[in-house]
Input
Amino acid sequence: MKYLPSILALLLLGATLPAPAQTPVSQPRQPNIIFILTDDLGYGDLGVFYQNQRQQAANRSEPWHYTPYLDQMAAGGAQLTQQYANAPVCAPSRASLLTGTHQGNAHVRNNQFDKALEDNHTLGTVLQAAGYTTATIGKWGLQGVDEVGPNWPAHPLKRGFDAYFGYMRHMDGHEHYPVEGPYGGPKQVWYGYENVSEAMAKCYTTDLWTAAAKKYVIDHTKGTDAAKPFFLYLAYDTPHAVLELPTQTYPKGQGLNGGLQWTGTPGQMINTASGQVDSYLHPDYRDATYDHDRNVATAEVAWPDTYKRYATAVRRIDDGVGDLLRLLKDLHLDDNTLVVFTSDNGPSVESYLPARYVPNSPTFFNSFGPFDGIKRDCWEGGVRMPTLVRWPGHIPAGRVVTTPSIFSDWLATFATAACVPAPARTDGVSLLPSLTGQGRQPESTVYVEYFEEGQTPDYGAFEPNHRGRRREQMQMLRLGDLAGVRYQVKSANDDFEIYDVVKDPSQGTNLARHPGYEQLQQQLKARALQVRRANPTAQRPYDNAPIPATPAASTKNKKSFSWKYVKGDFPWVAADEEQKASAHGTTKTLGGKELRNRRGMVYYTAYVNVPTDGVYEFSLKTTGKAFVRLHEAALLDADFGYIPGTELTQRVPLQAGQHPIRVAYRSGKAPQPALTLQWKKAGDTTWRPLGAAK
Output
């Protein structure tokens, strides 16, 4: 492996690959952005969200652990107490984060780990086009399963990232020592397209990813791209899967001259790659005891080793985050770096330890917090995430954001921070208004769908109506303070359970059984169909249900397309973010004079009048780029990678009545711009131009 030292010398130096063929946009003081994602860390695992409450209660039968640096991050920034993952397991959750699409419109759904992330806009491509250098470190798991590597179809370097270092495959993230593999066998660590695993002896992955992240930031400040902002997606693979331990105590000090350091020496690549693997227990937990029988008259017993391991793994992440935040201060990057910390889904029951260890249960620390549900559940405990955000000078210290939001909002948020428009494809909205306290916060679409065989655990801490519940097809939809939840969904007509998750976080009182919620029940059933489109790789029992029409009263006088023109040089089909219109009007059909001699975006809104229930087909063709939504569902995507003049078609089942259509059009280079959107009932031979409602 003579090439290895030279490859690692280049590791994360900030050298960039060519960005996608999109117009770069540069604005002063764009913040650096770091997104830190943990694996299977529960809402209740952070001190500031729940563990500190257990400590303050001082009930010795309910043990607690500590996250002091994350608590400091919360004190210096914002807590998002009502942020959701897009799915209750990692692959779809991470895919929705990266693409800005919720699970009703996503390509990766259910537990489709290692499925190729679609070739479309991502956090990486958007920020590259905004002038950022981009890197991802840690777990990927969205590379595509047909090839063994290194040329996976959805390698991070093909999805908007200039540099990659980490575990490519989902299952590799189940083992946290890539060389020794004491429980899961050796794994592969990749730098770009090179397998560099052999040099990673005794590297505990939490330490390895932290050291690599620090090196990336340090080298960026010294490199040729130092004037550019950077985006770092740091994806830890812990405390997920096997509960392994570090080799030794966290190195003294933090930041530039302390803490974890990248040595660059094969065989001792980081300064904790020595000693015995899987050996170090944090001293706060090594001799910890608790009241196991809830009887103060009897002697306390030691924590089972399983939970000493879990607490140590969480504490190691906490140390790493503190180390990285200190580095930002040392490099004077602190005030211009937006840092997000969160987890991909709720806490799990896995430990992958030998039989001599007690099984892992999130009940020991109540890692699910005040909620019911764990990983794979659509109860709050499976999808409510421990999200912290820090951006000194922009986000007030100690801010608590209670507005509901979801991971698919981060693409729009980062685009706004980077001074570029979000792509029209994103289902999310910018969260900067609620984070900074400035401006009006648009409403997020908090929607989850998932299939999982199995059941909610029969934990005594859970509400009786949740214990042992069969999961199967599940949905969750948030409307204000209320969450609609369905388990074992058999049809679109199944009732939602309705909970006020602000007043009733454990979801013990099903309001759907109370009078006065009948209209909300129908609203939930309708919206659960209007926000999504079917995906043949993740079939649902409601895929073929006719999408409900919009109530007639709200469509009054909608007899033509309304349009507005926003002048500008847009790098893609941009979301309509209430930009000031340069011109506006109405038209009977698309693609008329409103497109001529104009450079920028044209946004149309209209209604299609469906005469009878049935399956309808829509067709789009344009000389520019466009994106079409039906209600809130993605209908036709003629943006990323679209070849002008290509016809796109899509079939959807529709209920008779009025259905809103929104079209975002970006002008192209053709001298005569053209935009054609047609529809017909499936089986008919004649297309009809989409125009005035009749």
Remarks:
- Confidence is low (pLDDT under 50) at residues 1-28.
- The CA atoms of residues 498 and 511 lie 5 Å apart.
- The first strand starts at residue 32 and ends at 39.
- The first helix runs from residue 4 to 9.
